Amino acid sequence: MCMCVIKKYGLCFSLFFLCFGGIAFSVYGQEKDTLLTKSLNDVIVREKRTVSNKTSVSQSMDSAHLQQLPTIQLSDALKFFSGVQVKDFGGVGGLKTISVRSLGANHTAVAYDGISVSDCQTGQINLGRFSLENMETVHLNVDNGMDIFLPARLSASANVLQLFTLKPHFTDKKPYNVKVSFRGGSYTLLQPFLLVENQISKHLVSSFMFDYIYQKGDYPFQIQNGDSTLTLKRTNADIQMYRIEENLYLPINDKQELTAKVFYYHSEQNLPGAVIFYTVSPSQQLWDQSVFAQVHYLYKIHKKIHFQSNAKWNYASLRYVDSLYMNAEGELDNRYIQREIYLSNAALYMPFTHWSFSISNDLSYNRMSASVEDFVNPLRYSSLTAFSSLFSSKKVQVSACVLHTYMYDLSQKSSFTKSTDKWTPSFRIAYKPFDKEDFYIKAFYKHIFRMPTFNDMYYRLVGNVHLLPENAYQCDAGFSYARYINNCIPYVSVAADVYYNYVKDKIIAMPNKNLFIWSMINLGEVSITGVDAQAAITWKINKKVSFETTLHYTYQQAIDITDKTAKNYKNQIPYTPKHTASTVIACENKWIHVSYSLMYVGERYSLGQNIPDNVLEAYFDHSFAFYRSFKLKKTTLSLRAEVLNVFNAHYEVVKNYPMAGRQFQGKITYNF
Asked: Which of 28, 331, 351, 500 has the fewest C-beta atoms lying within 10 Å of its C-beta?
């Protein structure tokens, strides 16, 4: 059966790339080893990914910006991006997913050091798996940008969240770096962290990261029923998790480099459940485990020809237990296992100064099994091939991409098979009208789709194997402007985008035979109109004092246009505020650095009908951070204190899942 996939373009491209890469290795092996005498510091440096939004619809935060934010987790930082909603079930252990421009978490790909993270069961990536402690750059791209030398899978989603970790950098000819930190905070938050970077040889560098988090999560919250308000404590909310990561960096020579990563994540947590009418369910537990290994190879064969290859193996398991479940066994104990093998190859050809072409092909194999009765153990073979072209001059940048997707679904316990064969285009342009001004006008169009997940198709009694892909059409027009004013105001930037998204064949759950038997169907249509705006300014009062301010604002009208006769027709879709805004003000001086953040999230609705009973109230969240570093000979000691949600606002991101109020936390870091 898998031959049906292989014969669909993908294998031809991959075999070509593999043979081509093999030739490259053999040619390299015949060359004299004249380039390897350079010192490692000339080859491996801390790569500064200053991803600009001048010509693309993107936003980014580097490690310096992340340090300014009063945050605990990665999801807290992402809330400060325009157009982003983070679905948060509360606490450190609560599920956290990202939706960009109201398209949903299934339309947002997450890439970790350039290679995508997958979840074939739900299609949604839990951002709680990744640590902020070793993060160098967080980059959100809506239009795929002007970089056409990427794996095809990163062109197959409406939005891409790219996470880049720190690369080792050695100074004073020291062969190692060590970073040790400890964070403690409210509700028994404990987080030790260790990062060790080692220069094994002149041409081999490694880094090892260990991150552990424990939190009891017994924060107070308020619930209201009629005129009465009661303050309770969250129970059954404790979690412990740890992450282990090992990286190897091998610069073969000036033209070739190889990197490898092994990542392991494990969490054990109790699930506090929804708070409904003073009732808290304390009976559920979750074990989540994920391990993957990935390799990246880059070869600059010629100044006009570049080649890269990526490979990944992934294993993930999930166990869910409900000890009070009302069935014959008296409990529910479900286990799910996912496996993936992924191979990506890409070639970039630059025949002219301003014009380049690329082709990339991704092959993947996904398999899922479960302890659930009658589960069909589905498999999916995928082939993605992207053909891209870029024209770039001083005034104009134009890129286009055509993506071919072929997927073949089957199951081990049934005769069901299904294939999907689809072409989708995208186009983007950026224009600089003035030579002496850093002002760009940009626009893009993208048609993309998401395949039904294994849960959508096979979940017991609810899944529907005949689901069609969910299509998304995106249109965007905007501008960006940045300039130097004077020594006091060295940097000012402003950017804004107006966009329209249309979702067709949206996959939703609807009653089938009666109100108690639901099924996944292609029924929904959503119309999304919005505006994203960002501004940043830097003030330098004098040599010792400076201020940095960033502002973000989003307006979204995301309405359901599925059925004109329905009560929710042209109502705002659930959990989508019309207005969100945030600001961060950071003051750096020789005494102590201070940052203040403010986030506003407007009124939302928990269900499709926009009625008072479904309203989630708007809220403000104010936070402060105080931090300072001290040089101790050749080492650095950093101290940090934070107050989150200063005014103790009580709010919910997801209905009946209250968020924590005021929190205090402190952190000490030692680098040597």
From this structure: 351
Question: Could you read off the pLDDT of 549-591 as tens digits, one per residue?
Answer: 999 999 999 999 998 999 999 999 988 999 999 999 999 998 9
Any idea what the CATH number is for the domain that residue 92 is in? 2.40.170.20
* Residue 610 to residues 38, 84, 601, 613, 616, Cα–Cα distance (Å): 65, 21, 17, 8, 11
SS3 track for 360-388? EEEEEEEEEEECCCCCCCEEEEEEEEEEE
User: How many domains, in total, are found in the chain?
Assistant: 1
Q: Amino acid letter at 49?
A: R
Domain boundaries, position 51? 3-671
The stretches of 448-542 forming alpha helices (DSSP H) are 454-458
Q: How far apart are CA 601 and CA 583, in angstroms?
A: 12
Compute the distance between CA of residue 53 and CA of residue 485 in angstroms, rounded to an integer.
20
Write the pLDDT tens digit of every residue in 245-301.
999 999 989 999 999 999 999 999 888 877 776 565 567 888 999 999 999 999 999
Residue 13 φ then ψ, to 5°: -65, -45
Lowest mean pLDDT among 219-223, 305-309, 358-362: 219-223
Cα radius of gyration rounded to whole Å, the chain = 25
- Residue 238, pLDDT > 70, answer yes
What the block records as the tokens of 400 is 């286009």
For 84, residues 6+ apart whose C-beta sits below 8 A from its C-beta are 78, 98, 99, 100, 140, 554
> Does residue 476 surpass a pLDDT of 80?
yes
